[in-house]
Structures are given as structure tokens and as C-alpha cells.
Amino acid sequence: MTSADPKSLSVSTESEQPKTPEAGVVEQTTVDAPTAETSNSGPAKKITIGSQRDVAAKITAPTRPKAIELAESNPVKLFGDAEPEIETAAPPIIRSTWGLEGDDEAELAAALGETSMEDLLAKTEVADVELEPDSRVKGIVNRVTDENVFFLLKGRFEGVIATRQFKEPPVEGAMIDVVVKSENTEDGLWELSLPGASVDGGDWDSLQKGDIVDAHVTGTNTGGLEVTVNSLRGFIPASQIDRVRVETFGDYANKKLQCLVQEINPKRRKLVLSRRAILDREFEEKRKEIMGTIEVGQILEGLVTRLADFGAFVDVGGLEGLIHISKLSWSRIKHPSEVLEVGQKVKAKVDRIDAATGKVSLSFRDTIEHPWEGIDERFPVNSVATGRVTRIATFGAFVQLGHGIEGLVHISELAHHRVFAVKNVVKEGDEVQVKVLSIDRDQQKIGLSLKATQAAPEKKSDKKEVDETDLPARPLAVSKRSEPLQGGRSRASGGDKFGLNL
């Protein structure tokens, strides 16, 4: 290539020797471009590529503070002249990424048992599910504290319930039915509650009909109980306090009752609650549970809750049964209080179950030995026994010889003389001695005699003290006539005096 060639380009730098560009100095490059002049004669004109500003002079580096230079020259030794001992950490155990170790694989196989991994994954719930407020789901207790119980819910969700909603704190790992309330976005937790748990009720907007609240009894009046639900005032009618009639309201003073919102009217500031609805709900749940387990003829233990003229009510594990007065004793009684009392623990036999109405009839006397067992040995025929007159009838008197054993003294067996009224001989409550005449075990009847235990009166003698044949005859007031009576026809009648022809 010659200098006369117009297509040639020559590249040169300001310095022939390569130098490292200093700080702040911009390397410039010039390129020879062909022109008309250079093609004829003279050297090529250089064109500068890059910044057209003057190259700045060498820029010196900024000076370092003296304090830093002094600290670097005299370093501080924290451990003195001795070098610190550095403990070497053990290398981490890195498990195989190609599968399970031998022990882990055996443990997993033992845990799965006969269930395959495909079946286990098929039964696993999908993680990205959504929870709906007021829905009822199952949760696993994850952690229990003094104030809250934390649950693991389906999917990726977690929830919390106040510990005070539980009668007893649950154990970790237990599965419990819960109701979803709302989501707390700040904590990332769902607020939960137990089915049937009470709400706070801080204002009128937070309450609605059917909610369960905790009411504090503040006073009483003739119609029921005055209560407060937080800052709201409410009322419990007398008929809604309990499942049975309540006579004294003062027993509930200053007590905390769980009630159901029966009526609410924010405009009129009216809040009517019902405790009976809660008790009825609990009773119904227990009744259904027990009704499926009891059978006719089964012996149950219970507690006498109340007495009525027709029988006694017994609570048998949440189910209330009735013992009719005829099933309380083998003998006749006028009132259940003669046999049982409120609060007494008794055993009763299931006599009848009505699945339609949920009523259970019980028998108390069937748990006691039948009094007629061995009756022939205790009261043999022709023996004399002592008893009490229990009742009087027109045909005789009933005498109780023992518990559940009653005999009849017929009116003809009351006395040796003729008796026109039983009450003229014996009265109710009299203690008498009677003789056993007969026993009928099949009919459970005993014939008794009162007069058989008494001495018979002496009979009067037929001989008359005075012989009436020796006495003289008395004269007759009207003498006897031998002639027949005329009937008044032998004389005139006197009718002619009055114009009668007789």
C-alpha cells in the first residue's frame, strides 16, 4: 500500500509508546480521512474522534484523613499478643438428593403401612382452598396458651379461638369442629369460635336474633331478671330462665348466664334473652345421645330433680325420666315424698321408651325385692299379725301388714255383731291385730279377720226368769161377742130428716 492510494487510512495516537491512561485523562484517537487535497499532494489531515474539550491535566488522588492513616499504622489488638483460638465447625450432614436414606425409608414405610403414597396424595386436601365466613370446618389444635388456642385449618390457613370458650383447655393434636368468623389480615389468622359459643355484643349492631351471649344478672323484678350484655341492658322473662318454673329470682343475682337473643330492637333499646333455649338445646343433644344407648329393662343411676303429685322426675345422665307414683312403691302412697326426696341418688329401671316424644318412663319399685317373696313363711295361714289400717271402704277395711303387703278385713269379719258402717269399728291409722284367713299369691290378696282375735260374747239363756203361765189373766177391754155384728142396720139411719129415703 502507497501513500498516494486515496482509499488508505492511517490510524495513529498521540504517543507512539502505549501508556496507561491516567485518571481524568481521556484517550483520543485520530483517523486520516481522504480529501481532495491529500489525493494531490501533502500529508493527510487528522480528524479527532472523542471529546473536543482540552484534555485536563493530571488529576491527583484525594488525600486520606490522618486519623485513618494513624489507625492503619497502629492497629488495636483485642486479644493481646496471643492469637485467638478459632473452633472449626463440624461439616453439615448433607443427605442424598437422589432419594431417602436407608433408615428414613424404613421409617416411612412403617408409618404408611399398607397405604401407598398415591392413595395418600389422593386423599390429601388441596392447599389453595378458601374459607367462607360462618362456615363450619374441622381444625387441629396446634398450640394452647392461657388466652388463645391456635388451630391448623384446611389448606394453608390458621385460626385462633379464645381459651375462655372452652370448659377445659383442649389437648394439642385434637380435632375439633369450629365456626369461621372473620379474617385478621394483620396477623394472618382467622378468628374462629366454637359452635354455640357466645358473642361479645359490644353494641346494637353486633347483635342479631339467634346470637348466644353472656348476660350478667344485675337485678330482678316481678316479671323476670334484669341483665346486661357488656354495655347493653336486657331482660330475661320468668318463663325463659329455666326449663322448670322458677319461684325465687334472687338465686340468680350477680350470676353470669349464657342466653340466646330472642328479640332485639335497637330503635326501642329492647333486648329480650332466653336461657331456657340454651338449656333446651343442650337437653335435646344429650337426649338424642342417650336415647340411642338405653333399652327397656336397663337399670340406670340418676338424681331426683323434682317431685310432683303424680310422680318423681329423675335425671339419668342428661335425660330426664318420670317415675309414676304407682311405680315408686309396692304399697299405696299418697305422695312421692313418702319414698323419695329431691337430690337423692336412686337406681331406676327403664319401663317404657317413647321414641316419638322422647319420653322415658322409669320404675323405682322394680329395683327393690318384691315383698310377696316368701309371703307364706312370713305370714302363714291362721297366724296373728299386727298391722295398720290404711283405708276404709264400704265393704271392709284394708290393713297393711308390711311394706307392700296389704290385706282386707271384710265387714263381716270386723265384729261378732252386725256392723252397719266400717267407721263405727275402725278408723284409718288404727293399729289392730288380725288373723290371716287366706293367701292368694297369684292375685296378691290376703284375707284377714279382726273378730277372730276377739273373744265371742256370751249367749243369753232361753229360760225365762218368771213363768208367765202362773200369772192371772187380765180382763179384756172389749168383751167378746158370740153373735155376728149387725153393721148398724137394726136401727133407723135418720136420713129422712134431711129428705133422704134410706
How is this structure best described in words?
There is one protein chain. The chain has 502 residues and is mainly β. Among the domains are: 1-17 and 25-51, no CATH class; 136-193, Beta Barrel (OB fold (Dihydrolipoamide Acetyltransferase, E2P)), CATH 2.40.50.140; 204-280, OB fold (Dihydrolipoamide Acetyltransferase, E2P) (Beta Barrel), CATH 2.40.50.140; 294-367, OB fold (Dihydrolipoamide Acetyltransferase, E2P), CATH 2.40.50; 375-453, OB fold (Dihydrolipoamide Acetyltransferase, E2P). It contains 6 helices and 23 strands. It has helices at 36-40, 66-73, 102-112, 117-123, 276-291, 375-378; strands spanning 11-12, 29-32, 46-49, 136-144, 148-152, 158-162, 175-184, 189-193, 212-221, 224-229, 232-237, 256-265, 270-274, 299-308, 311-316, 319-324, 345-354, 359-363, 384-393, 396-402, 405-410, 431-440, 445-449. Strand 19 and strand 20 form a beta hairpin. The longest helix has 16 residues, at 276-291. The termini are far apart.
Index terms:
OB fold (Dihydrolipoamide Acetyltransferase, E2P); 6 helices; 502 residues; 10% helix; mainly beta; five-stranded mixed beta barrel; disordered N terminus
How would you summarize this macromolecular structure in one to three sentences?
The protein contains six helices and 23 strands. By secondary structure, it is mostly beta strands.
Element order: H for helix, E for strand? EEHEHHHEEEEEEEEEEHEEEEEHEEEEE
Give the C-level CATH assignment of the domain at 375-453. Answer: Mainly Beta
CATH topology of the domain at 375-453: OB fold (Dihydrolipoamide Acetyltransferase, E2P)
| Percent of residues in helices | 10-25%
- The whole-number mean of residue pLDDT values reads 76
Distance between the termini: 215 Å
Spans of at least 5 consecutive residues whose pLDDT stays below 50 are 1-33, 35-41
Helical run tally: 6
**Strand percent estimate:** 25-35%
What is the second-level CATH architecture of the domain at 375-453?
Beta Barrel
Total count of strands: 23
Largest sheet: 5 strands, mixed, barrel
As laid out across the biggest beta sheet, the strand order is 4-5-6-8-7
* Overall SS class: mainly beta
Form type:
elongated
> What is the CATH superfamily label of the domain at 375-453?
Nucleic acid-binding proteins
Radius of gyration: 59 Å
